[in-house]
Amino acid sequence: MPARHLVAGSPPPAGPSLRTTVVASAAAVGAVATGTFTALVPTPGDGVNVAAAADESPMPGALSASTAALLRNPGTQAIGTLAPITAAPVTGDGFAAADQHLAMLGKAADIAQKIADQAAKAQAAAADKARLDQVIATGGLDGWIAEALRVLDLPQSYGPGVKKIILSESGGNPHAINLTDSNARRGTPSQGLMQTIPSTFRAYVAPELAGRAITDPVANITAGINYMIANYGVGTLTSGGRTNSAGDYIGY
C-alpha cells in the first residue's frame, strides 16, 4: 500500500498486511467491484464513523467512510460486527425427504386423474343408458332390438346387423308366421321377428324371458340372436346374416 495513504507518525501495522485484511474482509462480507477498485459496505452498528473522508487523490467509484478510515489508519477496526454467513448444509436425509414429498404429490395427481376418468366414464354410461331407455320407451323395431341386446348384455353396435336380419326374415312384423316353408310343412312354422320355430325359441330365448310367447318381440329377438351366434358366429350376426355367393340374403 503506498505511504501516502498512511497518517504520518502512525506505527506500522502488525500482523497481516492491510491488503490481506481488506481482501479477507471482502471475501467475508461480499464486495462490489468498480473498475480496479473494490468497495466494502459495512452494516449499521459496526462502530465505524460513517462521515465522509476525502482522499488525497481521486479514485474510481466511491469509498465508504469505514473503508476510507481503514486506508488512513491500519489500526481502525476493519470489519466490526460483519461476519461471513454460512448456509446450513443439505444432508442426504433432506434430499430423501424432498424426493418422498415429490413422490407423494405425483401419487396424489394420479389418484385425482383416475377419479376424474371414472367420473367421466360414469357420466358417459349414464348418458348411454338414458338414450337407450328413450329408444326402448319409444318402442318399435329399434326399441325392441335395443332392449333385446341389453337383456343379452351385448353391444348396441350389433343393432344394425340384427335389424337387417329381421327385415329380411319378417319385414319387422312381430306376428309374422311362415306357412309355406319346410318347417311349416312339418307343423312347426317359423314365427316372430326372427322367424324361429318353437323348439329353437325354447332352446335359445334369454332365460329371464322364457315365460313370454314366441311372438313377443324382445323374447323372439333374443332367441334369434343367440341361435345366430351359436351356429354361425357373431360376425354373421353383425354383418346382417348369411348371404350366397352373389351377396343375396339367405335364411338361417
Descriptive account of the structure:
The chain is mainly alpha-helical and 252 residues long. It has 2 domains: 3-72, no CATH class; 137-250, Lysozyme. It is built from 9 helices and 4 strands; from the N terminus they run H-E-E-H-H-H-H-H-H-H-H-E-E. The protein has helices spanning 18-29, 65-72, 92-138, 140-151, 159-169, 182-185, 198-204, 217-232, 234-238, and strands at 32-34, 37-39, 242-243, 249-250. Strands 1-2 form a two-stranded antiparallel sheet. Strands 3-4 form a two-stranded antiparallel sheet. Strand 1 (32-34) and strand 2 form a beta hairpin. Helix 3 crosses helix 4, helix 4 packs across helix 8 and helix 7 packs across helix 8 (217-232). It starts with 17 loop residues before the first helix and ends with a strand. Residues 1-8, 18-41 and 48-61 have low confidence and may be disordered.
Question: Concise description?
Answer:
With 252 residues, this protein is mainly alpha-helical. It has helices spanning 18-29, 65-72, 92-138, 140-151, 159-169, 182-185, 198-204, 217-232, 234-238, and strands spanning 32-34, 37-39, 242-243, 249-250.
